[in-house]
Fold this protein.
Amino acid sequence: MTEKDLKEFEDRLLAERKRIVKEMGHLESTVLKVNPRDSAGDLSGYSFHMADAGTDAYEREKAFLFASSEGRLLMEIDDALRRLYRGEYGSCESCGKPISRARLEAMPATRMCVACKEKEERATRGAQ
Ligand SMILES: [Zn+2]
């Protein structure tokens, strides 16, 4: 994946994030705020409050976010952005192999390759 590709996915993720945050407009949440480190537009300087895991506020916010599908999607997007800034974007979280470009374009926030996702879904269904 090239710098240009990453930038493209970053733009898509940020745009999607903006849309969801707007939809969830009523929600006043520390988790939802992204803080640019400076105003020069250096996106690599973005930091996420969710990185401060383990605090009571974080746990409350997380429980709240998980209660809605928008919240879950938002967390997936934040997660994808964190991976992107760490240089891990596009690799399957489960097997570490690159996720196909077509899959990323269809679902920029995806964490797993098709094979691992299917495995997970089979396992989830089996457990029910
Ligand atoms: Zn995989």
The chain has a mean pLDDT of 79. The chain has two domains: 3-89, 92-128. Residues 40 and 46 are 11 Å apart (CA to CA). The longest strand covers residues 34-35.
